[in-house]
Design a protein that fits this description.
Layout (H helix, E strand, L loop, with lengths): L13 E5 L3 H12 L5 E5 L3 H9 L5 E2 L3 H7 L2 E4 L6 H8 L8 E4 L5 H11 L6 E2 L1 E4 L19 E4 L7 H13 L3 E4 L2 H28 L3 H7 L2 H7 L6 H10 L1 H24 L2 H23 L13 E5 L3 E6 L5 H13 L1 E7 L5 H12 L3 E6 L2 E7 L11 E2 L4 H11 L6 E4 L2 H5 L3 H9 L3 E3 L8 E4 L8 E3 L5 H10 L6 E5 L7 H8 L3 E5 L2 E5 L8 E3 L4 H12 L3 E10 L6 H8 L3 E10 L2 E9 L8 E2 L1 H5 L5 H10 L3 E5 L2 H4 L5 H11 L3 E4 L3 E5 L6 E4 L4 H11 L6 E4 L2 H6 L3 H7 L3 E5 L2
Parallel strand pairs: 1-2, 1-4, 2-3, 4-5, 5-6, 8-9, 11-24, 12-23, 15-16, 19-20, 27-28, 31-32
Antiparallel strand pairs: 7-8, 10-32, 10-33, 12-14, 13-14, 16-18, 17-18, 20-22, 21-22, 24-26, 25-26, 28-30, 29-30
The structure holds NADP nicotinamide-adenine-dinucleotide phosphate.
NADP nicotinamide-adenine-dinucleotide phosphate (NAP) binds next to α1 and α4.
Length: 745
């Protein structure tokens, strides 16, 4: 037996369920099966149901004298139809003890609370309305299912008069039968349920009724395919129950029917006039919202590669390499492309878009603000820009997953919108510091609230007039610079940002590609609010971090060469390549036409160069920041002792990629000296072993580079993030001769 503390203010030993139908019977049976209480007593106006309940073992006993049973019960559950609740409450009131908890399972709450106030005058502190979000198309005690509430939500709507201890005790009992307990206010409950349950049921009933009236209805039903069957399943629910719900939740249901009717009206007009953009807009938004909902339900991420989370890779040095690898698109540029294409006028076609968690979170946020976005499909995305003044208020807070770039950049955009927004993310993102971006945005006139610890959620007040500022970044941050430049698109006057160290300038370049009035020079970057941004075609340059990983793999190989096409060569990002070249990697760089305002090049990397130790710091280090873990690995396979200094700024990064890489190297026996500001790596012959990428992209890339440096096989666990960033990398690498393969768990 599950024991409840005998010290509890409201110990529940005997439960009386009134209304032994599907829900009442299921709750009674669930309590009995799990031995949650000492006795479960059933009462129903139908004696046959009572008898059946007893025979089926749903209850321990049937109430012969309801008044007496009410006086004995610790908890009374009203499980009758909603329209009968008032009558039953009035019947039990005279016999209730002070300590007896009273709850219900009705699908609507306002009507119950109104009735209870009328009956009790002052509501007892033990009265806690409830509603399990679980059910079936069957009714009656025969349909009772002891597992009906397992992993389903149960909403409690305690009132101001309710004793929190009473709510807690009832919540524990629902949890004991497997339910996930939530709390909501009564009116909110009825609004939410009207939208998510009542309206869909009404539509299903109405569709079947409409089609059933048609003369050819038999044929329609005979040929009806899965879509009709799926959509109308709930029209088989109990008509009386739904009649009662419509009467009980009249106002909220009417509001939802009106919203829906105007939505169908828009769809009808678009079909009538052949308005493809509106049609596609409605369908793509709905599809992405449905996919988003499925992900929330299944607790999966934005990218469809979650199945790879547990995949390990086995890699080792190869003798011969030859061919070409198509690297994934650059993440930073992909995110900026989606934002600016959404704010432009006209249609922007993007190719080479990186479909990872961060860029998909950005894309979803813009869809939530009414931007029609087709794709991504194999890196292709079509964005129907809404113009600088075309974003719509999102239906709720915008979820940005893990992406600090999305949160900071969008903060700049949203600070200037006429509507309020809230940005939130996963646990890791909530820990990230947002004051760095919020403070200068406030100086421009934005109104933004952040948490006490300086992080998400960000609550941004709309309708603020922004003014341009002159701002010197206190510490280098491309994200803060970008947020301010984006806010500058709506600010009066000019916005000028000065930075102590040049940070990546993808935003400036892309703003220029969309026709913004932006200039970069000695005196910093300046933007003036443009009249409009103009849609364009964008090919996202391929990610230079992956090029560095390939460079290390090739360096470890015996002979041959590897070709990489259209690699981003933004001068603020080429530090790693320069370091590898200094170490002796032979790379031929053939410039190609700019893409998305960015320089790109085809790289030919020659195998067979034995890397030499290197010293890296200062400006070069800041241009190789993201690839530093890879450079530490390169140093591990190089001849001699390499030194990396000026690292203290990086050590405070949330994930400490340097610390993680040091651990990886030490796991394989590499001699690494480490202080706050410096890492010293002594190159060696690396034999092989086993390391953990811990689901991190940066650690995964470093671990794979390490694997390619080993003379014996190296097993790399938890490579999910790595593979979801470039799902076909392993197959491509195998084709050019690299020794790597997947091992699924
Ligand atoms: P059900 O299977 O029809 O059971 C209701 C039972 O209550 C029937 O046996 C009914 O008897 C009895 N009853 C009616 N008036 C009574 C009264 N005055 N005194 C004693 N018993 C009475 O219905 P249900 O599906 O379990 O629904 C019960 C409650 O749960 C409703 O308030 C509903 O809104 C809520 N709910 C239902 C679902 C669902 O999917 N079904 C989901 C969540 C919540 P008769 O058959 O003689 O009327």
């Amino acid at each position: 037996m599950l024991s409840y503390s005998s010290l509890s203010k409201y110990p529940i030993k005997r439960v009386l369920v009134i209304g032994l139908g599907l829900i009442g019977g299921s709750f009674a049976k669930a309590l009995k099966t799990r031995s949650c209480v000492e006795e479960v007593v059933g009462a129903d106006r139908n004696p046959d149901e009572c008898r059946l309940g007893l025979d089926l073992g749903v209850v321990d006993r049937v109430a012969e004298d309801l008044a007496a049973e009410v006086g004995l019960a610790d908890l009374i559950v009203l499980a009758v139809p909603v329209k009968a609740m008032e009558k039953v409450l009035a019947e039990i009131k005279p016999h209730l003890r002070l300590q007896t908890l009273v709850t219900d399972v009705g699908s609507t709450k306002t009507n119950l609370v109104t009735a209870a106030r009328a009956i009790f005058g002052r509501l007892p502190p033990t009265f806690i309305p409830g509603h399990p979000i679980a059910g079936a198309e069957k009714s009656g005690v025969r349909a009772s299912d002891a597992d009906l509430f397992e992993r389903h939500k149960l909403i409690l709507t305690p009132l101001p008069e309710t004793d929190p201890d009473a709510t807690l005790e009832l919540a524990r009992l629902w949890q004991a039968v497997g339910a996930e307990v939530l709390q909501m206010e009564v009116e909110r409950h009825d609004e939410v349920l009207a939208a998510t349950s009542h309206l869909p049921h009404l539509l299903a009933f109405s569709l079947v009724d409409t089609l059933a009236r048609e003369e050819e209805n038999l044929d329609i039903f005979r040929y009806a395919a899965g879509g009709f069957r799926d959509f109308t399943r709930i029209a088989a629910s109990d008509p009386t129950m739904w009649h009662d719900i419509c009467i009980a939740n009249r106002e909220a249901i009417l509001a939802q029917i009106d919203r829906y009717t105007s939505g169908v009206g828009r769809l009808r007009a678009a079909v009538d006039s052949g308005d493809s953009e509106t049609l596609l807009g409605i369908f793509t938004r709905a599809k992405s919202a449905r996919d988003h909902f499925t992900r929330l339900i299944n607790k999966t991420g934005y990218s469809s590669n979650d199945h790879m989370a547990g995949v390990s890779l086995r890699a080792q040095r190869t003798n011969e390499i030859d061919g070409q690898i198509n690297l994934p698109g650059d993440k930073s540029i992909s995110q900026r492309a989606i934002i600016l294409a959404s704010l432009a006028e006209g249609v922007t076609d993007i190719t080479g878009f990186l479909e990872n968690e961060d860029s998909l979170a950005t894309l979803q946020a813009l869809r939530d603000m009414g931007v029609v976005i087709e794709g991504p499909h194999q890196g292709q995305v079509r964005v129907y820009g809404v113009g600088l003044n075309g974003l719509q208020p999102p239906p709720g807070p915008l979820y940005l997953g893990h992406s600090a770039t999305a949160m900071r950049l969008l903060a700049g955009v949203l600070a200037a919108q006429p509507f309020d927004t809230e940005l939130f993310g996963d646990e890791a993102l909530s820990q990230r510091n947002m004051t760095r971006v919020v403070d200068p945005l406030r100086a421009m006139g934005a109104q933004i609230e952040i948490s006490d610890t300086g992080g998400a959620p960000l609550r941004i007040k709309g309708g603020q007039a922004l003014q341009g500022i002159e701002y010197t970044l206190p510490m280098p941050s491309a994200q803060v610079k970008s947020a301010l430049l984006l806010a500058g698109l709506w600010a009066s006057g000019e916005t000028r940002i000065r930075e102590p160290v040049l940070t990546r300038d993808h935003t400036e370049r892309m703003l220029a590609a969309f026709g913004a009035d932006v200039e970069a020079g000695e005196q910093g970057v300046v933007i003036k609010a443009p009249r409009a941004l103009t849609a364009t075609r964008l090919a996202i340059p391929r990610d230079i971090s992956w090029a560095a990983l390939c460079g290390i793999a090739v360096a470890g190989s015996g002979q041959g060469q590897l070709e990489l096409d259209a690699v981003g060569m933004n001068p603020t990002r080429t530090g790693a390549l320069e370091v590898l070249q200094r170490m002796g990697l032979q790379v031929e760089v053939n410039a190609q036409p700019d893409q998305a305002g960015e320089p790109v090049a085809q790289l030919n990397i020659q195998a067979g160069s034995r890397l030499q130790a290197v010293q890296v710091g200062g400006e070069l280090l800041s241009r190789a920041m993201d690839e530093l873990p890879l450079l530490l690995v390169a140093a591990a396979q190089a001849e001699g002792v390499s030194r990396f200094n000026g690292l203290s700024r990086l050590r405070h990064k949330e994930e400490d990629p340097v610390g993680r890489t040091v651990e990886l190297l030490r796991t394989l026996g590499i001699n690494v000296g480490e202080s706050e500001d410096e890492v010293v790596v002594t190159g060696a012959c690396i034999s092989g072993g086993q390391v953990d990428a811990a689901g991190s992209l940066r650690a995964g890339m470093a671990a794979l580079a390490l694997g390619f440096s080993c003379s014996e096989p190296c097993l790399i666990d938890r490579c999910g993030s790595l593979l979801s960033a470039c799902p076909d990398f392993v197959e491509q690498a195998q084709r050019v001769g690299l020794k790597v393969h997947k091992e699924e768990d």
